[in-house]
């Protein structure tokens, strides 16, 4: 039975092979035809690692790039890498299509148990599948490299926009050039697409806010925002005008409180209004991330602009001219009323433009346009305001009206604002838009900090005076509770106001050094003015002068704080204590010297100088001390000893090396001694330490007025003694205890020598008292008929010289 079955099976297998022959030959012919038409193959195995290596190298270079030229080169390299990766993917696509065609010709592999294929077909299908998988992987890798390079290019563009805030020495073209206005008249397709996308998202959120489900809430929030923004501050002013004269004590605290309240109310009303307006969109569930971020930025910018407007309204105080803090005439205040509001409006509008450019990733041209236009309008505003003020002053002077008393500080502020505005305009005209933007926002930030500091200092000082005044309820309560007198209250007011001013100055310094509107980096403002006109010469420089600016600010602020504190200690605080004048002068001098050392150390730290790298300075100082600086160092150390041990102090009457006078000042190197004729002798401090010094006033020493007189032998000593004692007792400067005394000094052939002694309160009174006593004693002796002993004089006469004999 098995043999008959084998024969049909063999015939069936033979018939199958014969039937498959045409298909196999057709596959071979197709493979041969495709081989002849195959394009030049790309060696992706070597090109893909090279592309990946280029991408990794670009990422490393981006992390260290700082200059604009570096970012430009990196962006070009990234775009070139995108193009190369896309070309590789396009070149591999035909190969993948060809292999897929061969696989289609071969068809799918037969199921197990069906007809078997020849080993040639099986090997060919396996080889084609492996090639297809490899090509697919390579194409995906090339596309991934292209996407990574494209993302890196976008990142480089963002870093370049951020770098424009610090690359202040970059010449980007004048505002009069065509490139500056190209974003308006010829915007790029990418910018237009991104702004259209953002507008579409805002429009979608706005339409959703007014849909049936959200319409009522949107209307409520919108009406609240408009009501608070337009009428909020005026609504708060009326009750405050009623509260101030009834609840606050009379004095300057009312005006400083009103100024602070005006600033705070303006800021809060405008800020809350913007928050409510933005909340109509941000509360929606489908609001995009761009709209949410933009709303947060609008709220922050509104608060900043509102602070500027509020400070201007509060300091000008046109609603209450009699309570105005700065001494500004009413016509000038009315003239300047619109400038703070315009300035705040410009900052808000163009700040929004700058934030929007950063949010959507706009091009560098669009970013520069927004920065340049904002700087231009702010500079014009800051330049027109002083011009109008000067014109109003000249008009008032011509009409005979009285203007405000101008101070040096006010004139300096006026000059700085005008010069800064001129610098901004010049930078815009010659093409340094990043520099103009930097100076503009630095001017705004410094102006904001200074105005806030001015307002808060007045508020703190007036508050301390009101709290510790003996005439207010708080002062009376402190006096009765703590058993204080008026002097203690005055001292407390001075001390607490000084602490408040010091705290405000420290916070202002920190704000100036570590905060700038529109940036998160410290301020950078030192460039070489002579190279500004060099154009491309500056572009090759990487100028980021944050350390230098911080050092200059630290030095200026530290010097001002030290100078103000020294003046406060010397004139306000220490005179109210029970310290003597010499101790007060020593404390002030010691405080000043320590302050200078600290300022120098802080300034060097701000410059980025590390103390562990100053070994060469220490070595140089050691050599210098060994040769020429030893006297200076010795006098400096001696000055510190004089200020701490106080063997002599300011106001003492000292005598050293035949020089006698009052100590007027103890400096770092030498001490000034004023003589009786008002001339000054400079004595090195080391001599006051190493030599014998007579301090006539140390320990409250009394002065001794001693007069020694010589009388003839025939006088009555008792009569003369009583007369001298009477003259001393009658003088008002002679102390009763110890009592005056007369001593018999000498009895000789020339006469009787008597010495009379009396004590006075101070050695400085000895000279004048002794002179007065001599006048009185001479009168009394003449009245009593007593004469002083005459000094015997021997005259030696020489014979006249003989005349020379004539030859």
From TrEMBL:
Residues 706-787 form the Mechanosensitive ion channel MscS C-terminal domain. The chain crosses the membrane at residues 218-236, 257-282, 302-320, 332-353, 359-387, 408-433, 445-468, 489-513, 543-562, 583-608. Residues 1-27 form the signal peptide. Residues 41-68 form a coiled coil. Its main location: membrane. This is Potassium efflux system protein/small-conductance mechanosensitive channel. Residues 589-630 form the Mechanosensitive ion channel transmembrane helices 2/3 domain. InterPro entries: DUF3772, LSM_dom_sf, MS_channel_1st, MS_channel_C, MscS-like_channel, MscS_beta-dom_sf, MscS_channel_2nd, MscS_channel_C_sf. It is found in: Cell membrane. Keywords: Cell membrane, Coiled coil, Membrane, Signal, Transmembrane, Transmembrane helix. Pfam families: DUF3772 (PF12607), MS_channel_1st (PF21088), MS_channel_2nd (PF00924), MS_channel_3rd (PF21082). Belongs to the MscS (TC 1.A.23) family. It is a multi-pass membrane protein. Residues 140-201 form the DUF3772 domain. Residues 632-697 form the Mechanosensitive ion channel MscS domain.
